[in-house]
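Appendix B. Extra example for self-study. Work through it before the problem class; the solution is given directly after the inputs so you can check yourself.
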Amino acid sequence: MAAQKSDLPQGTLDLLILKAVAVEPVHGYAIAQRLEQVSRGVVQVPEGSLYPALHRLENRGFLAADWKRTETGREAKFYKLTRKGRKQLDSEAASWQRLIEGVGLILGTAERGAQ
Amino acid sequence: MNWWSRLWRRNRLEAELEKELRFHLDQHASDLIARGRPAAHAQREARMALGGPEQVKQNCREARGTRWAEELLQDTCYAFRTFRHKPGFAVVTVLISALGIGTTTVMFALIQSVLLKPLPFAQPDRLVVLHGFVEHLGEVWGYSYPDFKDIHQQSRSLVLAAWTYTGGTISSPGEPEYVDGRQISADLFPTLGISPLYGRAFHSDEDRLGAAPVAMISYDLWQRRFAGDRTVLGRKLIFDGTHYVVIGIAPPGFQLSGEADVFTPIGQSTDPRMHNRKAAFVKVVARLASGVTLNQAQEEVSLINRRLAREYPKSDAEVRMLVRPFMQEMVKDVRGTLWLLLSAVGLVLFIACVNIASLFLIRAVSRERELAMRVALGAGRGRLIRQCMTESAVLGLCGGLVGILAAAVSLHPFVALWPGSLPRADEIRIDWRVLCFAIAMSLLCGLLFGLAPALRVPMQRLEQALRGGRTVTAASRHLHSPFVISEIALAVVLLVSAGMLGHTLLTLSSLNPGLDPRNVLTARFALSPNAMADPSQIRSAWQEVLDRARRVPDVQFAALSDIVPMREGENVLDYRTTPTPLPPGQEPFALASSVTPDYLKVMGIPLHQGRFFDEQDREGSEPVVVVDENLAQHAFGRKDVVGKRLWVYALGAPVRIIGVVGHVRHWGLAGDDQSPVHDQMYYAFAQVPVPLLHFFSSIMSITIRTRTSPLNVVDPLQHELRGASGDQALYEIRDMEQLIGASLARQRFLSFLFGIFAGIALLLACIGVYGVLAYLTRQRTSEIGVRMALGASAHDVMWLVLRQSLKMIAVGVGLGMIAALAAGQLLRHLVEGMRPVNAATYPMMISLLVLAALLASFLPALRASLIDPVKALRQE
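Solution. Structure tokens for the complete assembly:
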């Protein structure tokens, strides 16, 4: 699939997109902006892989898309979370949380062991 | 949006993708401008952030998951475009594969319908047939009725039923008409697991002597004679002089070894054979009881077999009773032939595939530049292989479709060509299984012939290929020769097989049948039921028939006979030369036929010694027989046996030999040598005892020698013999030459088919040789140019090309001969009367092949010798 290197850990982009879309329908450019803002510039979303990821999520039924006018009056493709997508977001977020805790625990132990 | 709609609406999706990305870029750029960047910079920066637009688009397309299908579509369209570009190539390959697939489909349809499809009975795999086997006689057709009754009573593992042939005239209602019938036991329908269409089957209390006469009729007869009227149930039917009440109509298509119109309960039969343990005339079918295996049933039957042999040593000691699956029994005659033909057809298909593959390969090599160009433009190897395979698969499928159409058209004419009766012929059709098989085969063939070119897709030395430099010819020669060699080898197999079959057919048809078949008419004859009713009148009724027949113009002689040479039907009796009985199993057997005095003259059988029957040989005078030369030789070791006596149990004691005649190939020109019974005897119809006359009359045939073509007398004869009440009829009318021809029908049929297959194989092999050589020669143009510039003559160049083809032909012929030997063994196994490979067949067939192959390579060789060295070198 997408061959581009990402600074994000594998599979995280999907999770982040789902999260970004969760609040209200947004278009692709806004998702990129939002991800950057929310992560205060730490996470650089590779824009090239954003769209393939969006399309993939749409085809898998996690996102639904509509063409709507933006405030500037141009037509844009707005993505929103489906019910299936929300479930996916919840379970992915939970497993991500568990992963962080697990990794943190190990790192903490290692530091203590080194002291 | 699901996969299909994504595929269908790909154009809309494409436009939307474009729009979406454009929006993204514009938005980004305007943001940047808002932050104070110059407009030109902003556009550029936004594009940089997104990455190459084509790359992003491609990744988005892949996310749709429809890419392979789109590419398949693309490739298919491309394939059609290239075919339109070179229609000759496409037409040739489609025709060749259609030929292969079509013939294979016809054969598979036959095998599927006849051998593989379950029988139209309930749980057909639980049905079995009981078979008899006698050491000196081989397989015997059936069982005696008393034996059947005993097994029926004693067996626990089998539910048995029986039937036998019958026939007679339906004299009311309507016009008299002779029909075939079957006497069946009451449990036959339940055993087979079928029920009548209307009405009921027989009850067991109707299946005994003296019960009220009831009958079932076939669906055909019901439609034909009663126009499908259901009130026929309960009505009277006069069949063979007996008044029956119709109680049921058999389901459509119901057959018992052939079609029959009237079914009567076998237990009501007054046939004297019903009480004779030696008369094996009923066929026994059975259903395995639940939970019983075939082996267990066989064990039980063998146990009963031994018990019967102890109780009735005279009749039952030699008989071995065997249990066989019903299906196997039904198709045993054709199974071998069908598989043989399928393998022959498979060879043809294989040759066709190899042929097309080599044509594809040649084309692929000449397309090297095109492919190299596409690689240079960024196509992946996998992508190109897929494209090559798509092209050949499309051709394969096109060929397959044409082939299936051809098969559908030719299936029924082909079945009609089948010699003798093909079991389950009415069930033969192209059903969905055959269709799946054919489509799968054509796809497989398509992929197969695309494989070699696909694997040759150039990936290295691109620039060489692009420049059009000659690639190594030696390598491609090695690549091509296996194709030519295998085509030739397979063609040898088919040619030698066809040669063997043709040789066999020639040898067999030149055999002396032992009689003079010209102008001889034979027909079965149904005597008037009125005459049959009174045994004392039967003989004079037959005499009248003969007298009337002689009155017909152009009839030279007329005679009666119970069996007719080369037609179905036989009567085999044991005999001995002394009054003392021999131990069971050692008595010799002879084919016995009951005839009237003119029979010898009708058939033109040579009389070697003594005399044939005359009017003096009748009931009450000394019982006499005439034997053939074989019997004389076997029984007495010499030819002059007139006056000697034979003891024939079935003829009721010692009989005097009054004459010796020539041997007749009764079992057919091919079959007679294979038959376990070689001896023949004749006895006088006039001496058949009165109680047996009714039975004999139901099987007698009339045989007639005519002065002109026998077909001319059929109508006057029919008319003359109709009888006083018009209720007598000739049926199964055959002329003797027809019967002799039919006795070789199988051999003729196989020779014909193999001849066609071999012809196709030869043609394809020649196309293959020609194609490959033409290509190789073209590849070597500049080399040949150099050679000629250095002084090689046209002759040398031709020899150069021919030598190349000779090498391939030699290897192919060598391999083919080994395979042909094996095929010959198989044929000898499957075709009766098959002669071993004779010295002439091999050289003849192989020189035919070599000649044709050389002819095919001559054209390229000639073209090579005409190459202008200057032009050839300038081309380089």
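Self-check: Residues 326-366 of chain B form the longest helix (41 residues). If your reasoning did not lead you there, revisit section 3.
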